[in-house]
Each structure stands twice: as structure tokens, then as C-alpha cells.
Amino acid sequence: MAERMTGKVAVVTGGAKGIGRGCAEMLAREGAAVVIGDIDRDVGAQTSAGIRASGHEAAFYPTDVLREEQCASLMSRAAHAYGRVDVLINNVGWFPRGTLEETTSELWDAVLAINLRSHFFCTKHAVPHLRRSGGGSIINIGSTAGIQATPNLLAYSAAKGGLISMTRTLAGALAPDRIRVNYVVPGWILTEAEIALQHRRGLDDEMLMRAGSALPLGRHQTIEDVAYAVLFLASDESSQVTGTVLNVDAGVSVLPIGAQSVYVG
Description:
This protein is an alpha/beta fold. Helix content is 45%, strand content 14%. Helix 1 crosses helix 8, helix 3 (68-82) runs parallel beside helix 4 (105-132) and helix 4 runs parallel beside helix 5.
């Protein structure tokens, strides 16, 4: 179906590149007016300009999601520019590795601030606009680390696990307002940042490809895989879906503990 998002306004945090960019581009192609909030001014501006050059509607507002007032401003500017807000995609994320012994209190605080507190800020200030629109959809981009044991991602796992709890709590709290809240697990996507990180850990491209082929569904996930899931949850096709965890992870999250070593988290 074409233009499944016609008439809707979607705010995407961390939308300048990676998963956020893929989601913004797909929602725009499906008819949404997309508002990108990102700390990277140059890339954010380029992404929104590229969407507009393709004949779709997009705006970019520089936003540091660690600052509550900037999260509030992003939502207000989106509503002012397009008259409403229907969708919020909480996509900003940071995933530094660290075991218990390697995780300092400073790292713990920083990881939870980026991956959990910022989502709280954005959600808190988006909800009044969603209510005025008669309802809407909040989509939290999660991780397999939030639902399974990943010892070298202690702080990140705690944040993503907390995000599941926040998702389910708000799904119940906001249901009377017809605001749906869901959690998407992207799986293992070889973004430029992920490839660079794995190279630093000693895995070359051939090793990464072998690891991907060993996943239950036979390959690494892509940004487009995640964007399709987000499109479904943002559209009216999922009007009765809330409080769910949608796995786009090739089946990794349902593997028995001990059988997940193929996934280099």
C-alpha cells in the first residue's frame, strides 16, 4: 500500500543517520511530514534536505536530547511547523561496551541518560501534542540487550531493559488517550559505527559475514528491516497494537542462553 502515513507528522530523534535516518526516509516516502531531531547539525540538515529533494516533507531541528528543554522545544517546533504531532520515534542510542568491572559510575550515568532518560524527556513533551491529535504512536528503539544476558553491555542492557518497562507502563497509562507505545528490537545491523567497533575488537569483514550467516534466519539485519517494522507501528494498520516488543533480530532473542554466541553484542 502506498502512502500509509499520509496526513501524519512524525518526530524522529537521532534521525540524521543510521536507523533513525532509514525510518525518517521511509515514513516520508509513505506520506508523513518528518521532523528530525539530532545533535549533528550538518548531517541532520543534509538528511532533511535529501528527503525534501526526493519530493517529500521534512524539517530538521538541532536537538540535544540530554537537555529536557530542547526535547520540549523539538516537539513544540514540530507541532508549530505542521500543525500536529502523531508519531514519536525514540531512536537516540549509545552502546559502549563495559562489564561490571569496567563500568564506572560516570559511564553508567551517561549511558542511562542517553538511552533511557532522553526517551522519558521526549515522550513527556510529545504526549500533550499526541493527545491534541486524538492519539498516536510512540515507538522506542530497543535492543536484544534489553531482553537477554549481554555481560559486556551492562549499562546499556540496564537502560534498554528499563525502556521495556517504561514502554509497557506507558502503553497502559496512555491507552485511554489512544496513544500506543511499542518497543522494536533492531537485531544486529552492520552500520558504519558497528563495523568500526567490531574491527577494533578484532573481527574483520569476512568474520562478520560468517557470523551473520550463522544467525537463525541466515543474515544480518538491515536498516530497512527495522524501518518496515517502525512503519507498521506508526501507521493505522497497528491501531490495536500497544505494549508489545517487536523483534526484528533474525530470531536471536529466542535462542536458548548459551546458543547466542554467534551474536557479537
